[in-house]
Write a structure and sequence with these properties.
Strand content: 25-35%
Low-confidence stretches: none
Number of strands: 5
Distance between the termini: 32 Å
Number of helices: 2
Structural class: alpha+beta
């Protein structure tokens, strides 16, 4: 896997792995990072790439001092399983 890439033109964070690209679509709204759909190519599913991507995105948000709004069930479930990221989540947004 490569490092997290912020594709500001496509509004998505990307992680390149094994010839494929996993991504999380986002927008910045009101100073918050609104995380939308997470996509992992079928050939890469079940290898932990989605989790690595979400962890990298949340670490990036923390590094930028941004809170996140999750509009993705995968991201919401990841945060629930990793409560050390719960402080980033804007609830009810």
């Amino acid at each position: 896997m490569t490092d997290l890439i912020d594709d500001t033109v496509r509004h998505r964070f990307e992680l390149h792995a094994e010839g494929g690209v996993a991504f999380v679509a986002y927008i910045v709204e009101g100073g918050r990072l609104v995380l939308g759909h997470t996509s992992v190519p079928p050939a890469l599913e079940g290898r932990g790439i989605g989790s690595a991507l979400v962890r990298a995105v949340l670490d990036e948000a923390r590094g930028r001092g941004m809170r996140v709004v999750s509009r993705c069930s995968f991201i919401t479930a990841y945060i629930r399983r990793h409560p050390d990221y719960a402080d980033l989540l804007v609830r009810g947004a």
